[in-house]
Write a structure and sequence with these properties.
- This protein starts with about 25 loop residues before the first strand and ends in a 6-residue tail after the last helix.
- The longest helix is centred in the C-terminal third of the chain and has 24 residues.
- The chain contains 5 helices and 7 strands.
- The N terminus is likely disordered.
- Helix 1 packs across helix 5.
- With about 240 residues, the protein is of the alpha/beta class.
- The chain has a 5-stranded parallel β-sheet with strand order 2-1-3-4-5, with helices on both faces. Strands 6-7 form a two-stranded antiparallel ribbon.
């Protein structure tokens, strides 16, 4: 799902040191899980960066593809259940520090098969690892807020959308965030991402409509951006949970 005219504005300087204090700006880690810089996902990640910057956050922008993150599991990043203090690969450890430094995390990705793309799943597997994200009596990530912005090709009225929302919430809010001790985790599902509307008919066939254009396209994507920004605003409005 691409929007050729949309390019990410997420060029803020990386902030990778320590978590925020009373005398410093809070930090937001914005993670992009799309392989194209001209994608709608990248554009929405840029809008999230703009929104967070306006709210006073220092931005650490993590483009997994641009940084050549390797999503394949390795022995170096395989959990050792008898050693929760295992030192993982230098890449995984560096990403752990970036997650730990963030007060707010916003992850932007296209929805593939009602889940996250392989690149993002590999990042979760390697970085949200035993001894870091889970496996301790006091979770290291408690007190953070996380938003999962998933862009879906299905139309908002498609019968598949409610189930997609439930699946993503089960995977990301419960299976990941809650397990890692993060009490505030939200899935912001964004259907209608495609220029050609997609839906499934009564016989299970994929139906692709005519591409929107002109003023209708402009209005469509303005509403799409506004919905994404509202998800960010809603997350920031929620009360923090003390670690």
């Amino acid at each position: 799902m691409t929007q050729s005219a949309a390019t990410t504005t997420a060029t803020a300087e990386l902030t990778t040191t320590g978590s925020s204090t009373a005398d410093s700006a809070p930090t937001a880690l914005v993670v992009l899980g799309h392989h194209r810089a001209d994608s709608l996902s990248a554009h929405i990640a840029g809008r999230a960066v703009d929104r967070l910057t306006a709210a006073g956050y220092a931005i650490d922008f993590l483009d997994l593809h641009a940084e050549n993150f390797d999503p394949r599991m390795t022995v170096a990043d395989q959990p050792e259940w008898g050693n929760r203090d295992k030192v993982y690969s230098p890449t995984a450890e560096a990403h752990m520090r970036r997650v730990l430094a963030a007060d707010v995390i916003v992850v932007v990705f296209p929805v593939y098969w009602q889940s996250v793309p392989a690149m993002l799943k590999g990042w979760i597997d390697a970085v949200w690892n035993y001894g870091f994200a889970y496996g301790r009596s006091k979770p290291r990530l408690a007190g953070k807020r996380i938003l999962w912005l998933g862009l879906a090709g299905a139309t908002a009225g498609d019968a598949i959308v409610p189930g997609m929302q439930q699946l993503l919430e089960a995977q990301l809010n419960v299976g990941l965030a809650e397990y890692a001790g993060i009490a505030i985790s939200r899935v912001g599902l964004l259907p209608d991402a495609e220029e050609q509307p997609q839906s499934i008919d009564a016989e299970g066939n994929l139906v692709i409509g005519e591409a929107i254009s002109g003023d209708a396209r402009t209005t469509h994507y303005a509403a799409f951006e506004a919905k994404a920004e509202a998800f960010v605003d809603d997350l920031l409005a929620l009360d923090l949970v003390n670690a």
